[in-house]
Amino acid sequence: MKNLAIIPARGGSKRIPRKNIKEFLGKPIIAYSIEAALNSRLFDEVMVSTDDEDITAIAIQYGANVPFLRSEASANDFATTMDVLKEVEKTYKEKENKTFDFICCIYPTAPLIQPSDLRKGYDLMLEKEYDAVYPIVSFGYPVWRGIKFNEGGRTQLVWEQFKNSRSQDLEPVYHDAGQWYWYNPQQVNDTLFTNNSSALILTEDRVQDIDTLTDWKLAEIKYELLQHPK
Question: What domains appear along the chain, each with residue ranges and CATH number?
Answer without folding.
Answer: 3-138+173-227 (3.90.550.10)
